[in-house]
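User: Can you write out an input/output pair for a complex, sequences first and structure second?

Assistant: Here is one pair. Inputs:
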Amino acid sequence: MTSDPLLKVSNLTKTYTGSPSVIGRLLGRKPVNVRAVSDVSLTVARGEILGLIGESGCGKSTLGRAILRLHEPSSGRVEFAGTDVTALSAPDMKAMRRRMQIIFQDPYASLNPRRTVSDIVGLPLQLHGLAQSRSELRDKVAMMLEKVGLKAGQLDRYPHQFSGGQRQRIGIARALISNPEFVVCDEPVSALDVSIQAQIIQLLQDLKREFQLTYLFISHDISVIGYLSDRVAVMYLGEIVEMGPVDSVLSRPRHPYTQSLMSAVPEIEPSGKAQRVRLTGDLPSPLNPPAGCKFHTRCPLATDICRVRKPVTETVAQGHTAACHRLDENLSLLEGASA
Amino acid sequence: MSADILLEVRGLRTVFDTRAGQVCAVDGVDVTVNRGECLGIVGESGSGKSVTFASVMGLVRVPGRIEAGEIVFDGIDLRKLSAKKMQAMRGRDIAMTMQDALTALNPALTVGEQLAEMLAAHADDLPPGRMARRAAIRARAIEMLTRVGIPSAGERLGQYPHEFSGGMRQRIMIALALAAKPRLLIADEPTTALDVTIQAQVLELISALRAEFGMSVVLITHDLGVVAQHCDRVMVMYAGQVVEEGPTAQVIRQPRHPYTQGLLASIPRPARRGQPIRPIQGQVPELVNLPPQCRFLERCPLADDACRHPIDMRPAGPERRARCIRITTPDIEKGLSHDI
């Protein structure tokens, strides 16, 4: 790892504007803004896996896509290998995408059902001019298929002829064929059965070693993130509430949301020592996020200040940051202090 | 012992006739559910866990049919019941919640109407007289929604399913299933579509209501963690058959079937970071025209020619059974997860 991060995201914000319905417009309603990602800063070092965890609707996928400019960021900067990606022109961005790729969650929806595997996996080669001839393209695709555990003889098949795990392998082959340096893995194993999930995790680890990749690994599964990542970032309602080395964050989570997230995961071998923390209620609507600390509506530790003032991000240990008003008090929901 | 048994399924075989041939989704499955217990059913997609309980509920439709087996609920053979009698049992005595609450609830009726329909059909302690009856149903509906943790239940009775969040819809399903205070609740993947913090709320709700109503629960899931925390006993299914069953803690601590061992080794755990993960190789076999042999054979590291025969469940310790002829070999004893 070099000291310069491969990816540096600064104050990234993504706002979606929803236009009101016809009736709403007649009534003079204003468009609504949803801040899906709000002022997020993070870095990913070369060769590292940064795990991004959060519940549905917290903005983790939007963040992954905004980094690749698949969804244009509203403000903020994304630097990749020293280049400001957000300032690139469309053709330059297209060239940059050879180096920054994505693996999608749903292996059914993310592959064109009317294209063969050779077309799907070969497309990045065509787009980036990486194959001089049709036969070179097919050779390269065949080689890539074998790397991801499929057979070269399956080149001319269609996605529906494969199982879910095999389709995810096709998606991985497509992401890696242009030889990228950085891959956003957007819940790549969430749709798969446990035994197949393990196969894909193993494949992603092997490929990372072989191609010296850097991953932003998005998941809602703390076990997968804890097993795979070097560092982890926890998102809640569009913000990163805690971030740091996996060992530090999982063994000593400081934000009450991280603590409750961890205690909610059903452990296979119940240790007995973990205090159970129960959050009440659902995630608030991002259309109308709570004032102050966004977690205060569900936080067992919330006090008056949490309802009015947004907490700043503080360093709590080596490379470990958290944003909570009550960090100084060293409270933990997991040990004793019952909710 | 037999007085404690609420549901007993013997030799259940449910098949689907397809153009490719006969798919045997459930093949010779035995299930015993004791009164008041929570039984976990674990398996991956296509293992037959949902079809087994759809068969119990009498919900298998053409092209599927139950080919053989006995389903005895509290002394009554459900397969011999008339459609009308079965209809009366469903909901009142045995209730099932479906995985996808949005498609299982009727989008065109309010939550209150759906609860009222359930109560009107099954609750027998309603007062006489139309007005009194309606008032009692409404009060009971509010009580049920409150019990499952839906705030301001009175106002929300008039809302439609799409106006609720995913976690709330799953609670409504549970409220519907519990409205007639059934003796057995079958919860089919009740939390698969939910976030972990909401999942924990829903599972704890089911546990609390189980204790309160003294009912039995069958929890169908693919998540061994959920089973570890909530179920007394567990049954592991693979390709239409039960491959292992026993008390949850023992099965998880010392799995005896190579599939259960592989499943446990497949789960990524933060404590094992840096160590290679050991997935089960290959895929679940197609269920069409399966050869008469161990169904895990193609993926099993211990398989040999002796496995090319139909394998029966056999004792694997106190209150435990497994479908493997190698149960007593040292490899199994050590646990494959540690030395593949």
